[in-house]
Amino acid sequence: MYKRQSLVFSADIRDLDKGFKNIKGKLYGKGENINLELLSDFFPSLQVGIRKGISDFQVWGDFYTLKQSTFVGRLGLHDLVYKDIEVPIKNAISNEEITFIDTNFRLKGDLEDWQLALNDVSIKAASHEWPGKQYEISCVECGEQNFTLTAALDYINTDQLLSTLQHFPYIAERLNGVLEKIEIQGVLETSQLSAQFVENQLTKYTYQSLLQKANISLPEQGLAITSIVGEVDGNHQRGKLNLVCDAMGVKIEKIFSQPLENQNINGVINWQHIDGNMLVAMQKLIVKSNEMTASLQGMLQVIEKKPYVDVQVEIPYVKAETIKQYLPYRKMKPKLSKWLSDSITAGTFTDGKILFHGNPKYFPFKNKPGRFEITANVEEGVLAYRPNWPIASNIIANFKIKNNYLEVNASQGAILNSSIN
């Protein structure tokens, strides 16, 4: 059934003789079933990405001057249809655009200095909706080349957000510049952001957010971390991530042959980056997975594009089939990698320690500066040393890898039902 469009405005304006910026008065407006296709006619410079949709709104305005104006009301946008994508956002999910927004709002200020508060916001997309959220955004000196933008956001689902923003070319082009280096997907809650721009370039920023099953990847480094849960805060120079993950996934293509799945990880990661150099410090990360508990601490630094890793890992107890998942096979010699994967078939490792010091480029540090070492005690070990050789079982031994050398000192074992001491 066709609904008739209705648009009503009324105003009580005073002091027109004192100039446009000094007028005082009140304003009231109400619109029902307004066709949003009109946006393209009235605001072409905004490159509005909405092609179709309906708006209902009601607004009251009260201004003593334009800079002291306040507008409050309710805004509804529904049945939104977007224009074709001109600039796709990298890895944005299609068909998850926001199709419905209903909110109370309060807008204070003018085009240069303004504050926008959205209360009791209901948002819907194709597969998800989130009601009752709060959003506050403000901008100081927005009409200038130097300005500050701040935001406090209850909830962000990046799938729906990026799917929507890729219909706005002006925004998509700038987002792609960031997403070439780092990609973030998932849910962010209770987020606070502040950004300072000088000559329209981002110079300083701060952020704080709760991550809920978020995914972060660095495509150039072949690094991806999934299902991150924790609190992150920082600025343009340093930051901190407090992890409380029960099912994290880790993919490091240059080190591990397979992704590490369902990792229970708790701890703190700090980082600092200045003038292109970076330092990442890990404070007692506790990893629990597949009958293993490990504690990890250390740091990664990159100075003048040269990385250096200093990491220590302690593993009190772990099954052989579990620890083999964590060995850096892609950085080992192929023969050693295959031997470790195929030959150690069972057993328990106790008092395990892993040390890594040096530039990963030189791993496993043969005739190069650096140190890679794994030590552990082996109990009830089973070793298939070579194909077609008898299998050794019930092994009690000390196991050691140092750089690209392997050493096993056994004190007990059995071959072909014969004990070895």
Give a topology summary.
Elements: E1 6-14, E2 24-35, H1 39-42, E3 50-63, E4 70-82, E5 98-109, E6 114-125, E7 129-140, E8 147-157, H2 158-165, H3 169-179, E9 183-198, E10 201-218, E11 223-235, E12 238-252, E13 260-274, E14 277-289, E15 292-303, E16 306-319, H4 320-323, H5 334-343, E17 344-358, E18 371-383, E19 392-402, E20 405-415, E21 418-420
Antiparallel strand pairs: 1-2, 2-3, 3-4, 4-5, 5-6, 6-7, 7-8, 8-9, 9-10, 10-11, 11-12, 12-13, 13-14, 14-15, 15-16, 16-17, 17-18, 18-19, 19-20, 20-21
If you had to describe this structure to a student in words, what would you say it looks like?
The structure is a single chain. It is elongated and about 105 Å long. The protein is built from five helices and 21 strands. The protein has a 21-stranded antiparallel sheet. The model has no long low-confidence stretch (mean pLDDT 83). Strand 13 (260-274) and strand 14 form a beta hairpin. It has helices at residues 39-42, 158-165, 169-179, 320-323, 334-343; strands at residues 6-14, 24-35, 50-63, 70-82, 98-109, 114-125, 129-140, 147-157, 183-198, 201-218, 223-235, 238-252, 260-274, 277-289, 292-303, 306-319, 344-358, 371-383, 392-402, 405-415, 418-420. Helix content is 9%, strand content 63%. The protein is mainly β and 421 residues long.
